[in-house]
Amino acid sequence: MFRFTIFGVAVEVEPWFWLVMAYIGGGFYALKSNSPDAYMGVLLFMMAGFISVLAHELGHALTGWKRGGGSVWIRLWAFGGLAYHQGGRLDRRNRCAMILAGPGAGLVLAAISIASLYVIFPAPEAFTRMLYYLTYTMIPHEYMLNIFPDDRPVYGFLNAMVWVNVWWSILNLIPVYPLDGGQFMDQFVKSRKRMHKISIITCIVVVVIMMALQMTMGLIFFAYFAYTNYMGYREAKY
């Protein structure tokens, strides 16, 4: 267990977090190819994933703390991250602000990463590279290496930062409990059974899309969320 403190917030990072980040970043492909470039791509993605998930949870934690959420701490685990609050009470307005602060922090990081391209590389070269960053979501292959032979760490890291923070922020806003979108929905849907039912239906739709796109990790995540919401639906009294 890796522990540290940032901005007065205690953070715990479980080993499973790194394993999942390595898998999403192409760890199996790197082991199969045994290529230094592939390993570099995985490490860059893990670094970007760690910074991004931590920033997301800090958005929740610091916003909740500032608005009266009590003591806070963060845990990064296999399914991303969790921000815990204890000893405080938030009204619906402040709770909604706390919920949206996570994806908001991710989108700010994405904007910073995009802006960095225009600082590091001159236009129109930066615009050309930006198109590749937005469309290329795997680790570098030979075609990309031929385009950017001298800047592999730079474009690999920025590519991962843009991809993680844009797409993960969007996925987090899907109305599936306990994702941020589901927690936001929970502030307005009075019936717990209805909230879980909406989450289950949404999960089924997302799982079908993930199967069509052959996105294994996303399929596992939303299948798990569908199961937990089904159990929550059965246990809910209203």
Automatic annotation (TrEMBL):
- Keyword Transmembrane listed? The answer is yes
Entries under InterPro entries matching the protein: Peptidase_M50
One Pfam family linked to the record: Peptidase_M50
Any one Gene Ontology MF annotation carried by this entry is:
metallopeptidase activity
Q: Which GO terms describe its biological process?
A: proteolysis
Q: What cofactor does this one take?
A: Zn(2+)
The residues forming the signal peptide are: none
Question: Where mainly located?
Answer: membrane
Locations listed in the record: Membrane
Provide the transmembrane region boundaries: 15-31, 38-56, 97-121, 154-177, 198-227
Q: Where is the Peptidase M50 domain?
A: 47-212
Record keywords, A-Z = Hydrolase, Membrane, Metal-binding, Metalloprotease, Protease, Transmembrane, Transmembrane helix, Zinc
**Any one annotated GO CC term:** membrane
What membrane topology was assigned to this protein in its record?
A: Multi-pass membrane protein
What family is reported? Belongs to the peptidase M50B family.
Entry protein name: Peptidase M50 domain-containing protein
Q: What is the lineage of its organism?
A: Bacteria, Pseudomonadati, Verrucomicrobiota, Verrucomicrobiia, Verrucomicrobiales
